[in-house]
């Protein structure tokens, strides 16, 4: 019998999930809040439903007689998928566990029970007025603090404070939290990394370490992710150990994880961890290129009731760079990317048209596109990255 799969979230980063499911012979429905998301044209059925709307999505799942439900690279869809799986008796991570991975306050509370050393100093505020009053009374430097909506994704509303802008930053954070509260947290200086894994029956399979760089105008938003063989072995081991401890405490038994950490001297600090693959096609394209293992296929195995198996090469045998574009703000007159050599790329995406307005990057939604290069040689990967940047140009009106 053909599996009937519901993919919650129809954005471009879910395309690899939909395509792999279709290649496996699945009938695929997609749900998304947008009228015409990228996955819609490749789905057998489409439901226009907000990915956070659990009850409405459950009704759609029942009407479609689905036999499996899944999402990847979308935090806000994780609880919805878990809820539907629980209600229909399908394989899933469990709704309560999904909340521990998507609610940053609950995540910190759970990890703090036995590993407070892995956490930044943090406090939850449910009132914007209360947080503004607290900030007005503090004697610390505002630049040492950061605000995070408790349940947003894509770094929406996440920002470092400044003495001249903290009212606006706090207001935005509360808007992005959709009434769920905002964390006031220490800003941890240091290098940032993410750890990519796939977990099977509680055993953590380490896949790769990502070195992360941020936009100069916003040091909370990824600008460039690299896999260039430059993470020291001892640091890699510390990151893996911290990540495995966090996964164990949060209780994930099977599924993908994407954990983000800051390293400050001997200190490894959890920023957040998600029970899904890394965004920007880290799980969909980068990990398969580096390791010849597909977390997306393993995730499909799990939700389809099969037993996932991880057989992965050492990710340091190859090299990759994920680079987000960073154009100056302004109104676009024309865009040229005709000289980009697509056969050298794992992915290329640029959503700019004449008349569009480029804004300074304040959250992931302000990023206008990205590309991924992959090569067997480090210098070659860097050379391809430079060539793409040189081949793309924007004229302003």
Strands, helices and their partners?
Layout: E1 4-8, H1 15-23, E2 27-32, E3 45-48, H2 54-63, E4 68-70, H3 78-88, H4 95-102, H5 104-112, E5 122-125, H6 128-137, E6 145-149, E7 159-160, H7 166-177, E8 182-186, E9 191-200, E10 203-215, E11 218-227, H8 233-250, E12 255-264, E13 267-274, H9 282-291, H10 295-303, E14 319-324, E15 330-336, E16 345-350, E17 357-358, E18 369-375, H11 378-391, E19 393-396
Parallel strand pairs: 1-2, 1-4, 2-3
Antiparallel strand pairs: 5-8, 6-7, 6-8, 9-10, 9-12, 10-11, 11-14, 12-13, 14-18, 15-17, 15-19, 16-18
Helix pairs in contact: 2-3, 3-4, 4-5, 6-7
Can you give a write-up of this model?
The protein is of the alpha+beta class and 397 residues long. The chain has 4 domains: 4-96, Rossmann fold, CATH 3.40.50; 121-186, ATP-grasp fold, A domain (Dna Ligase, domain 1, 2-Layer Sandwich), CATH 3.30.1490.20; 189-320, D-amino Acid Aminotransferase, Chain A, domain 1 (2-Layer Sandwich); 325-396, no CATH class. The protein is 30% helix and 29% strand. It has 11 helices and 19 strands. The chain has helices at 15-23, 54-63, 78-88, 95-102, 104-112, 128-137, 166-177, 233-250, 282-291, 295-303, 378-391, and strands at 4-8, 27-32, 45-48, 68-70, 122-125, 145-149, 159-160, 182-186, 191-200, 203-215, 218-227, 255-264, 267-274, 319-324, 330-336, 345-350, 357-358, 369-375, 393-396. The strands form 4 sheets. It has an 8-stranded antiparallel sheet with strand order 13-12-9-10-11-14-18-16, with helices on both faces. A 4-stranded parallel sheet has the order 3-2-1-4, with helices on both faces. A hairpin with a 2-residue loop joins strand 9 and strand 10. The longest helix has 18 residues, at 233-250. The radius of gyration is 21 Å and the shape is globular. The termini are far apart.
């Amino acid at each position: 019998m053909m599996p009937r799969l519901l993919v919650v979230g129809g954005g471009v980063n879910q395309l690899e999930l939909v395509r792999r499911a279709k290649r496996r012979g699945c009938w695929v429905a997609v749900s998304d809040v947008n009228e015409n998301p990228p996955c819609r044209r490749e789905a057998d059925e489409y439901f226009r439903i907000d990915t956070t709307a659990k009850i409405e999505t459950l009704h759609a799942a029942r009407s479609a007689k689905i036999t499996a439900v899944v999402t990847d690279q979308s935090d806000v869809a994780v609880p919805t998928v878990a809820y539907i799986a629980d209600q229909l008796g399908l394989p899933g991570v469990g709704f309560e566990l999904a909340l521990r991975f998507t609610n940053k306050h609950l995540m910190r509370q759970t990890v703090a029970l036995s590993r407070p050393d892995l956490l930044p100093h943090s406090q939850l505020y449910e009132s914007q007025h209360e947080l503004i009053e607290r900030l007005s009374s503090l004697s610390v430097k505002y630049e040492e603090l950061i605000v995070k909506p408790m349940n947003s994704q894509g770094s929406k509303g996440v920002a470092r404070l400044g003495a001249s802008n903290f009212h606006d930053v706090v207001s935005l954070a509360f808007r992005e939290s959709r009434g769920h509260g905002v964390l006031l947290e220490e800003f941890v200086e240091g290098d940032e990394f993410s750890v990519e894994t796939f977990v099977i029956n509680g055993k953590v399979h380490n896949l790769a370490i990502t070195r992360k760089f941020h936009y100069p105008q916003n040091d909370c938003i990824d600008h460039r992710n690299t896999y260039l063989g430059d993470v020291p072995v001892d640091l890699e081991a510390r990151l893996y150990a911290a990540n495995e401890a966090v996964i164990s405490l949060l209780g994930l038994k099977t599924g993908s994880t994407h954990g983000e950490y800051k390293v400050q001297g001997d200190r490894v600090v959890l920023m957040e961890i998600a029970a899904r693959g890394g965004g920007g096609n880290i799980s969909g394209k980068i990990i398969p290129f580096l390791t010849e293992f597909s977390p997306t296929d393993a995730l499909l195995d799990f939700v389809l009731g099969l037993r996932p198996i991880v057989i992965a090469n050492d990710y340091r045998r190859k090299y990759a760079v994920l680079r987000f574009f960073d154009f100056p703000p302004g109104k676009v007159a024309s865009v040229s990317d005709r000289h980009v050599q697509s056969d050298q790329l794992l992915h290329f995406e640029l959503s700019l048209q004449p008349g569009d307005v480029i804004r300074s990057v304040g959250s992931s939604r302000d990023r206008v596109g990205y590309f991924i290069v992959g090569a067997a040689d480090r210098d070659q990967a860097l050379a391809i990255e430079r060539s793409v940047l040189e081949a793309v140009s924007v004229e302003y009106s």
